[in-house]
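::Encoded backbone::
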Amino acid sequence: KVRAAVRPVVGPYRSSRFLLNVATKFTGEPVAVILNGQPATVFVRDGSAVAALVLDILDGSIVAVRAVTNPEKLAHLSARLDTGATDHLG
């Protein structure tokens, strides 16, 4: 349905490179949230979540990034955005 990283992105260098690369590809308004207890950014376009980036942070450094772009998996986030609950999602 949509393209995603095939292999996990792990480590501070690779994670930061990944974030810089995807930042140019995601469209929509970035919204900082806590998603399943972790810091995340949800990209919102026309009221719907189009992508979510979840960060694994260890000792103050990003050590892994999880990206979700599957519209079916993002549907519940879009529903939560409609309610205005953007601080803690998931």
